[in-house]
Amino acid sequence: MSVLEGVRLGEIEHELAQLRRSASPGSLPDLRMSTMTHIAWVPPPWYEQATSTLRGMGDRHPSRTILLVPEPNDAESRVDAQLALEHFPLDSGGRRVCAEVIVLRLKGDPAHVPASVVRPLLTSDLPVYLRWRGEPMWATPSFEDLVDLVDRLVVNSAEWDDLPYAYSKLGQLFGRTAVSDLAWARTVGWRHSLAGLWPGIGDALRLSVEGPLACALLLHGWLRARLGRELTLEHVPGGDDVESVSVDGDTVPVPRERSTESELLADELDVDARDLLYEEAAMAASSAP
């Protein structure tokens, strides 16, 4: 690991090369592998959770990962960097895949121009994904410039306070970049279970969901859009996952598998197209009665 205070961006590539050389002295060099550039906007309160999620992904997505930690109120404007390599065994011959983790603490003014900070560090010809922790800072240059830089924005609307209204703000991005929502991903098994109730569910009047508000709103929006009419939503607050769903008082079968935050994020990083079904559900959720 290497820690640099007040770093110039050009120094980061040099320091990473030094780390790679020192990681495999006297042996075959590690294979540097990246399938994408994975940027994460991680305000300090989210830092521990974000790094835990990244560790849980293991070797599913070897990439250049850049964590942007904004500290806009710092008295001094500078960028501090923490650089590390992650190694994953490749074969019995001792070769390893090497992925890079770059943590940039954006102190003072750099926190307002993150796109200009991260742009020189992007891996050319590879897709760029942005995981935004917490609710985006809608219509601010720091958010807007990053959106224009990336191929996919990954959010978790369960982390947002301004629901359902924030979905209308998110909807303004649908034509600019692909969007993934981990709250939507958590509902996939429940959507399959609900779809299995067809055609009887066509006459449903009431959907009840116990779990995160975001998941309830998205399930409700999806079902309203599929049925082409209104139905009542009853929401019971719960934990991080959907605990139960019922239609007109009848319990919906519980999906067999549930995914961790790391698994959900890794799955979304496999996607390279717009999710039109999600976009429809989110816009329906934004207009929930």
Q: Poorly predicted ranges (pLDDT <50, ≥5 residues)?
A: none
User: What is the overall silhouette?
Assistant: elongated
The secondary-structure class comes to alpha/beta
Whole-number tally of structural domains = 2
Described by strand count, sense and barrel closure, the largest sheet is: 9 strands, mixed
Count of DSSP helices?
10
Number of E-type strands:
13
Mean of pLDDT: 90
What does this protein look like?
With 289 residues, the protein is an alpha/beta fold. It has 2 domains: 149 residues, no CATH class; 102 residues, no CATH class. 31% of the residues lie in helices and 25% in strands. Strands 1, 2, 3, 4, 5, 6, 7, 8 and 9 form a 9-stranded mixed sheet that branches. The chain has a 4-stranded mixed sheet with strand order 11-10-12-13, covered by helices on one side. Helix 2 packs across helix 9 and helix 8 crosses helix 10. The longest helix has 15 residues. It starts with a strand and ends with a helix.
